[in-house]
Amino acid sequence: MNCQELLDLLHDYIGGELVIELHRTVEIHITGCNSCMMLVESYRHTIRLARALPKCERLPAAVEDRLRKFLEPHLGSS
Ligand SMILES: [Zn+2]
Contact, 23 vs 13, CB < 8 A? Predict the structure, then answer.
């Protein structure tokens, strides 16, 4: 698994919706890849924030900005 594949699975991984084999594959990648580990932590943190603010429909700008900066190098978009 590479970082792009992990990114494709990230949402389902965080949601606990992956089959166990894929879930393990993701965890193995995260264990050996610091940037993906940080990405997962950041994603989880963002979800926690979003859940803590049920009336807030958009992410706080600072959080969205931070997440976008995390995601951009992984997506390879310019
Ligand atoms: Zn990675």
Answer: yes
The set of residues, in sequence order, having a beta carbon less than 8 Å from that of 36 and lying 6+ positions away, is 3, 6, 29, 30
pLDDT digits (tens, 9 = 90+) for 14-57: 989 999 999 999 999 999 999 999 999 998 888 888 777 766 56
Residue 68 Cα, ligand 1 centroid: separation in angstroms?
A: 16
Distance from Cα 55 to the centre of ligand 1, integer Å:
33
- How close is the Cα of 61 to the center of ligand 1, in Å? 25
The pTM score is 0.62
